[in-house]
Amino acid sequence: MQHSSTSRRREGSPWTGLWAVFFKEMADHLSSTRMRILEVLILLSAVGAVYAGAQTLRQTISEDPFLLLRVFTAAQDPLPSFVAFLSFFLPLAAIALGFDAINGEYSRNTLSRILAQPIYRDALLWGKFLAGLATIALILLALFLLVVGLSLIFLGVPPSSEEVARALLFLLATLAYTGVWLGIALVTSVLFRSAATSALAAIAVWLFFALFWGIIAQLLAQAVAPFDPFNPESELRQTEALLAFSRLSPNTLYAEAIQALLNPGVRSLGPVLISQLEGALLGSPLPLGQSFLLAWPQLTGLIALTIGLFAVAYVLFQRREVRA
Amino acid sequence: MVIETQGLTKRYGRVVAVEGLELRIEAGEVYGLLGPNGSGKTTTILMLLGLTEPSAGQVRVLGLDPAREPLSLKRQVGYLPDSVGFYGEMSAWENLSYIARLNGLPPALAKARMERVLERMGLTEVAHRPVGAFSRGMRQRLGLAEVLLKEPKVVILDEPTLGLDPEAAQEFLQIIRSLKSEGITVLLSSHLLHQVQAICDRVGLFHKGKLVLEGRVEELAQRVLGGAYRICLEATPLNGLAERLQALPEVSRVQAEGQGLRLEATQDIRPQVAKAVLEAGAALQSLVLEQPSLDEVYARYFQEVRHAA
């Protein structure tokens, strides 16, 4: 028995060749035209948003200990805030980086050649996923530093250490959110043989969550917890059901997480009863640890979703025949 | 024994792609896996490399199990797929260096080997051009360069001459033949039987997932065609000539073919044939001894199988 169980184990490490794949894919991403277009788009929108945000902030004279965080979230009418821009563009960027990860290898007839090298399929998939994530992390970091630098120039107020910590956590949440979309793109790239179909499918998922899930969640909440005008508790129940359903969407999770992280005044992400507010100093900021605790379930949800999607792509890819 | 399979079977749903394959290939052999498209050659190759899982049976390549020890196996076995593709925007050099890194070769060694294989395949001058602009023949040579990069003990080539013009195909086959002198075992698959028959030490003929014939080309010809000597002649008039030639004791079969006749005989009986034709009062225009071709072996074998059924 001992012998058979050891001989059944795969030889060697599944990570063999991971870094070779990682660096090749990352180099591909960074030099691709696709990336150039995305960079220009994201850069323009970020600069625009920060400029507009800073303009708004300069006009308000009230004292604010979290000026840098306001730059992220302040919007001036035609332009949305920096955060809104990111939550709009990053899923698209992730899809653009991942939609042809696996089916691209099929259509270029390179897959069988690569898999004939001494590596496992794990290394190929991980390498591609990590390269996509690292590319986005790189853009995000550059963008973040740019925004901090610009706001220093426009506002002339150095950020406090707590602000920087909150901003870095915000970056982490954004990366987790992008990971979800990269995971979705990876799954569609394994599922669909044609890159165009795969891109379309991933964008369809994105549209579904961005536009339709809100409506569907409302309908579902109404069906599950109908509102009774004579029972005030039913209203609370419906609100809670709505929240639960809308939290199935990564967009909601991300929006809530950054709300808690970037706005220290936020004390709860769900409905709050008057009785719960007794003795609370409204508007007074929460310490960083408490805000982080508030965003923790959303953050772990995003990370779990990313891992789950990667696992789905992994299982699908392991079973896929090498031959087209 | 370098490659050994026992009862190797692969089913896709209800379709049987390969059935009960018993393959034994010795070190230093050039073995041809031949048969029409869809007869199970590529599936067999993928199972040998562990790229697809067998439904039943055993595989050992260099004594290793492809399902359990794929890394040490693939470190020693080079594979050139039938439709070889490269990253078109990368240069030949970059494509090779990616493969070298996947094989974990140290940079200095990788560089030396890359220079050597590119030189050998005659690609040194185009090494830094993007592969997207390469011709089919150049890609095929780059594919072989990549295979040689890991200095393999076994090389598996799937349809190596597919899509090459006759000259390039012959050139490519000569390179494959030269691998034998380096002690590399070569397994190649092809549906172009006549093209590869010259370079194979042994061949196995596939039909509907089964290995139906195996052996040296001459042996197979002897076994299937009855006699290894085939004589083609053209003469006018042909009337009554066939019967007359059939009467010769060495002739086993006479067939009309275009303007002439094709004989099969147990010996080279060209003088007797010429005599017989002239005695029949016909004008002899040509008389040729044909080398046995695998295409014929294959066609004849299945003719007989069909007749028997």
From TrEMBL, chain A:
Pfam families: ABC2_membrane_2 (PF12679). GO terms for cellular component: plasma membrane. This is ABC-2 type transporter. Keywords: Membrane, Transmembrane, Transmembrane helix. The lineage of its organism: Bacteria, Thermotogati, Deinococcota, Deinococci, Thermales. The chain crosses the membrane at residues 40-61, 81-102, 123-155, 167-192, 199-221, 295-317. GO terms for molecular function: ABC-type transporter activity. It comes from Meiothermus ruber (strain ATCC 35948 / DSM 1279 / VKM B-1258 / 21). Signal peptide: none annotated.
